[in-house]
Design a protein that fits this description.
about 200 residues; mainly alpha; Four Helix Bundle (Hemerythrin (Met), subunit A); 7 helices; globular; phospholipid biosynthesis
């Protein structure tokens, strides 16, 4: 969640289609304009189980568009940019409504959003886009922890199971700490690349 959208090398960009109307792109658009607003509305009205089901579909659509892009040979330049943006907006949107509903602590939302904002500003200032940085191992574990923590907190809210909420909060703390550590690593990596380019 922290890292800016993955870079597209010039040679790869030439191979990618510039088509807009493809099945994977349609799924990414649907994730933003249909599934995300629906999930946010269900969370705000505390329909926890419907919201959880919608979030499962939301997450599944993220996997499906990438799978179809490769399987149908429909990888596009738009898709490589749209998919990570849709992911970022989805995570922040869901976290926001969970914080409003009292399910997610506000400190977690602020920490997640602040790290993302700093990295996006650095990428825009130094690279006018996305730097060539691989996803770190900490970043992968961070993402896994957060993706398990959010549904766990939703289930806890729908069942009033105090112990389950504690589990969710524990995973959330691990995820947020990993988010900050991974974000710091990405920022240091961007600074090194920027210095090399200026040298």
């Amino acid at each position: 969640m922290t890292q800016p959208p993955p870079p597209v090398a010039p040679a790869e960009a030439e191979r990618l289609s510039r088509r807009v109307l493809t099945i994977p792109n349609a799924i990414s658009f649907a994730r933003l304009v249909v599934l995300l607003p629906l999930a946010m509305a269900l969370l705000l009205t505390q329909h926890w189980w419907w919201a959880l089901g919608t979030l499962v579909v939301l997450g599944g659509s993220d996997w499906l568009d990438g799978f179809l892009a490769r399987r149908l040979d429909q990888r596009t330049l738009l898709g490589t940019r749209l998919d990570p943006v849709a992911d970022r907006i989805s995570i922040i949107g869901v976290s926001l409504v969970l914080a409003i509903g009292g399910v997610l602590p506000w400190w977690a939302l602020v920490a997640i959003a602040a790290v993302d904002l700093v990295l996006l500003l650095l990428a825009a200032t130094w690279f006018r886009g996305s730097p060539d940085l691989p996803v770190s191992r900490i970043g992968k574990w961070r993402t896994a922890a957060l993706f398990v923590a959010l549904p766990t907190l939703i289930v806890a809210a729908g069942t009033d199971l105090g112990w389950l909420r504690l589990v969710g909060l524990g995973l959330l703390v691990v995820g947020v700490l990993g988010h900050v550590v991974a974000g710091t690593g990405y920022a240091v990596g961007m600074a090194r690349i920027a210095r090399r380019r200026r040298a």
